Structure formats: C-alpha cells, structure tokens
Amino acid sequence: MMGEYLLYYKGELLGGIYDGRVLIKIAETNKKFGLCAEIPYKGAKPMFMIEDLDESEKVKAIIFETLKGLTKKR
Prior knowledge:
With 74 residues, this protein is an alpha+beta fold.
C-alpha cells in the first residue's frame, strides 16, 4: 500500500516516506545524483532514495532538480 506520508511542493507530488525511507520520483534531472532506486511498496514503480538527510544543501538540490524534471512532463 501507500507510504506513511506523501511529499508535495506547491501541489506537485514528488515522493513520500515509505517504511522510514525518503523516496522521490525518478526524473531525468535527478539522475545525476547517483541515487539508489528502491521499490516503495509492492507493485509500485521504483523511486530514488535520499539517504544523506543531514546534508541539507544536497537534499535541497535533489528536490529542486526533481521538481524541474517533473514539471517538464506537464
């Protein structure tokens, strides 16, 4: 099933927290960070896991790059 929380930014769904893991949607713009792909729950598409949550500038960069890639799809 779904994770514990879904993560949105200005109405854009970008990921969630699943079993204590922060996962974001895969986009062309966030592939450069070399994140590991994980399955959030059975039957779901893979998502990238953000592991270094203490590195706030890196997390911010990953999130904004992800948003750039997701908004290009619209």
